[in-house]
């Protein structure tokens, strides 16, 4: 039986505090779309939630508590199908991202 050992290296910027996070992503689609071999794109929705230690940038150090957040999204077939306000925001903040996301 294989055993997995998770090792955490304390972050020097956090005075040796170990950071842990638990996240869950769920994609939801219609079964008829998933089973349809004649289509090249399956519409889907994303739900994501995460709970974990304070991120270092929050400078909470050893303050008790955790950060919990959720987000949701919709899979789009191509960039042109994304919301125009989202595309404008991405272009303003990260102008080269849609040209070369590094993936």
Layout of secondary structure:
Blueprint: E1 21-28, H1 31-35, E2 45-52, E3 67-74, H2 84-93
Antiparallel strand pairs: 1-2, 2-3
Description:
This protein has 103 residues and is an alpha+beta fold. It has a domain at 12-77. It is built from two helices and three strands. The protein has helices at 31-35, 84-93; strands spanning 21-28, 45-52, 67-74. A three-stranded antiparallel β-sheet has the order 1-2-3, with no helix packed on it. The longest helix has 10 residues, at 84-93. The chain is flat. The relative contact order is 0.16.
Short note summarizing the structure:
The protein is of the alpha+beta class. The protein has helices at residues 31-35, 84-93, and strands spanning 21-28, 45-52, 67-74. It is built from two helices and three strands, in the order βαββα.
Would you tell me the overall average pLDDT?
83
**Outline, from the CA principal axes?**
flat
Q: Fraction of residues in helices? A: 10-25%
Strand order of the largest sheet: 1-2-3
How much strand content do the residues show?
A: 15-25%
Please report the distance between the alpha carbons of the first and last residues: 34 Å
Number of strands: 3
Main beta sheet, described? 3 strands, antiparallel
* Class per helix and strand makeup: alpha+beta
Supply Rg.
19 Å
């Amino acid at each position: 039986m294989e055993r997995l050992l998770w090792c955490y290296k304390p972050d020097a910027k956090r005075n040796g505090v170990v950071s842990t996070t638990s996240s869950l992503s769920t994609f939801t689609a219609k079964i008829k779309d998933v089973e349809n071999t004649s289509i090249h794109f399956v519409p889907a929705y994303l739900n994501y939630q995460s709970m974990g230690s304070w991120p270092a940038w929050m400078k909470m150090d050893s303050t008790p508590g955790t950060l919990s957040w959720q987000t949701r999204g919709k899979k789009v077939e191509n960039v042109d199908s994304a919301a125009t306000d989202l595309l404008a925001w991405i272009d303003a903040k990260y102008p080269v991202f849609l040209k070369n996301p590094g993936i």
